[in-house]
Amino acid sequence: MPSEKMSIVLETRARRPHRIAELAAARTRRHALLGESGRLFIIAADHPARGALRIGQQPLAMADRFDLLERLCVALARPGVDGVLGTADILEDLLLLGALDGKVVVGSMNRGGIAGTSFELDDRFTGCDAKSVSDMGFDGGKMLLRIDRSDPASVVTMEACAKAVNELAERQLMAMIEPFMSGRADGKVKNDLSTEATIHSIAIASGLGRTSAYTWLKVPVVDDMERVMATSTLPALLLGGEAAGDPDAAFERWHKALRLPTVRGLVVGRTLLYPPNDDVAGAVDTAAGLLPGQP
Questions:
Q1: Taking the domains of the chain in order of start, what are their residue ranges?
Q2: According to DSSP H, which parts of the chain are helical?
Q3: Which residues contact 278 (CB under 8 A, 6 or more apart)?
Q4: How does residue 31 score in pLDDT terms, banded at 50, 70 and 90?
Q5: Which CATH architecture has domain 38-288?
Q6: Which residues contact 122 (CB under 8 A, 6 or more apart)?
Q7: What is the pLDDT confidence band of residue 243, given thresholds at 50, 70 and 90?
C-alpha cells in the first residue's frame, strides 16, 4: 500500500473523521444489486472483528491492517468483482482509499461471537445495524446464524437475526444470512457441514422475519449440493470458508455448485486474499472465471 494513501487514511481518521460520512454520501453507487450477468461476486473481509485472524499455520496473518487493505484493493480492482463484505472499520478504510465507487457494499452486523472464547456462540450484534447501513448508502447487512441444539441461548441469536431481517427489509436492503448448525467438540466450536445439517440450517434461516423478500443466503459448499439448494427459493451465494490447502479443489467445488438455479455467486475472503502463492489477482481472476455469464 503506497505510503501517501495510508497517510490520507490515518490523517483523515485523526483530524477529519466527519469526512467518512461525506465520502459515503458522495460515493458512486450501482443502480442494481445484480449486474447484467445476473451474478454477484463479493470479497469477504469481516473476519478480524471476530478475532479470526488465522490463515493456515499463521495465527496472526490477517492482523496487519495495511497488508489486508492492500490485498482488498487488489481484489476489488479485478474484473468481475462486484463488491465487498466487511465491518464498519474496514469499509471506512476502503472508502477513504476510494475503493468502493460503483461497488456493492455489505456491512457485517453480528461479530460478538469472538473466536475461541467460552461465549463464541453468543453471536450478538456488535457491528453495523440496518440504520447505519442505510445512512452510509451501503447495499445490505450480513449476519451469522449459528444454532447449537444443546444451547438454549441460540434462540436469542435467531430472534436478533429476525429483527435485523425486518429492519433491512423495511429499507429494501439485502439481508444476507450465513446459517450453520453448530456445536462444541473438544472445547471448540465446530460447524456441522454434513448435507443434512446444512439443509436444516437453510430451512431455519429462510423463515426468519416478517418477510423474506430481501433475504439472501450465504452457504457453504458441502456434499450433495443439489439437495441442499433445493431447500429454499431464496437467492444464495457460496462462501469460501477457511483458506484451503488445495485451492484448485475449492475452485472445482464452487464451479459445480454455481450451476445450481438458486446460486447467484460467491462471497469469498481468505481463500482469495491469502492464496498459497500469494497471487491475489490470479486467485480472484480464477474465481471470477467460474461465474456463469462472466467473460
A1: 38-288
A2: 3-15, 19-26, 65-76, 88-96, 130-135, 154-170, 195-206, 225-229, 247-257, 270-273, 280-288
A3: none
A4: confident
A5: Alpha-Beta Barrel (3.20)
A6: 112, 113, 153, 156, 157
A7: low
